[in-house]
Amino acid sequence: PAVTDESEEKSDDDISSNSSSSNCDSTAHLSCNDPVDSKSSRMFACSEQSCTKTFVRYSALVKHCDLGAHTRALERITIYDRAKLSYAQHLQEGQVRERPSIAVSSSTTVNRESHVLPMGWALKQSSNKARFSEKQKEFLDEKFNIGERTGKKSNGEDVAQQMRRVCRPDGSRLFHVNEFLTPQQISSYFSRMVAKRKKIVEYENAAEEEAETLQTVTSQITVALNAEYEEEQCACYKDDAIVLPTMSKEKLRKQKMAVLKKLCSNYGITGIFGRKKEPNVEALYSYIRENPSSQHGLVLGQ
């Protein structure tokens, strides 16, 4: 038993001496190579991919590999992965988190009657538009007419500057500060003037066209009526002789009184008195019915 104890003690001493010698060697090796801090002195890194563990002693590295307790770190976290992780974290927190409840007391109630708004509070307030004075209109009309005559039209900015500098013959300003107009107001006034004159020109052109059309139609109607009248008057004249045509009573009524008297005298119709057409028309019409042969080319001299 004593021998065995001595042998065990010797083996323990050998192991401790070996470990101490190895530790001394490794320490001496580290100190000789690069005396750096504890983190940089860890020379043994895990051979497993993506494991970040490092060890000072080789035995610790072997033990770590045998146990398989690797510490892994992601090589790169994308925005998409980060969003997934954040969403999962919010879901987990939402299951545990409780909704806060706020106790409403009677003292915090708002007196609504004191905050009642009048009817129409949200409607747009109509702004009172000030009309231009006669002096402003005269100045703007003058500038507008100059532009129309010369062809070089002024813009609102130039006229607004002129309005601020124009003076009377005695040297005083023509317009006060409160009478100055903005370029936008002047441009709007000029636009209204252009539209008004355009309407006037269109109205005048339409009136001229209407007058020309009326004159043309009147002349055409006059010519047509004169032609019809001449045709009716010449219906009973041929080669300077009066012919009694096959006329109806209506056509006889359209003849002149002188023609009717001439026909009555040529046909020997007598006993007609007065200056009215009707007795002559009746006498001629009766003669035509009684003498049908007179309707076919009967020519009598004047």
Automatic annotation (TrEMBL):
Bias (Low complexity): 16-26
Keywords, alphabetical: Nucleotidyltransferase, RNA-directed DNA polymerase, Transferase
Top-level division of the source organism's lineage: Eukaryota
Entry-linked InterPro entries: Znf_C2H2_type (IPR013087)
GO molecular function: RNA-directed DNA polymerase activity
Segments of this protein annotated with the region Disordered: 1-27
Ranges of biased composition (kind: Acidic residues): 1-15
Official protein name in the record: RNA-directed DNA polymerase from transposon X-element
Organism in which the protein naturally occurs: Paramuricea clavata (Red gorgonian)
